[in-house]
Amino acid sequence: MSSEQERRELDEKARRGETVVAGGTGGKSLDAQERLAEGRSRGGQTRRDQMGTEGYHEMGRKGGLSTMEESGGVRAQREDIEIDESKFRKQND
Fold it and tell me: Which residue ranges does the record annotate as region Disordered (predicted)?
């Protein structure tokens, strides 16, 4: 299958509401999903650069504890899981 034909088929799926690009959720076309995914990736990289790898990792630990019923911070407190929020600060602060 040609690349152009494949892109057309993926675009049709995206227009029907399917996510065809990882990170492209919400895009109404293949092009929109590609741009969303790129922007989200760049945003995460920028945040990691601002916070440093250690802070970014710590923030991910806290976020990973969250559920629909409670935030990651509440759960960490309840389960006595230590989250060092001082690592969340920008490195220039």
Answer: 1-93
Which helix (H) or strand (E) segment is 14 a member of?
Answer: helix 3-15
Query: pTM to 2 decimals?
Result: 0.58
Task: Return d(Cα 39, Cα 78) in angstroms, integer.
Answer: 35
pLDDT at res. 93: 55
* C-alpha–C-alpha distance, residues 21 and 48, integer Å: 23
36: Cβ contacts below 8 Å, ≥ 6 apart: 21, 23, 24, 25, 26, 27
Q: How far is CA 71 from the centre of its chain?
A: 17
- d(CA 25, CA 21) in angstroms, rounded, equals 8
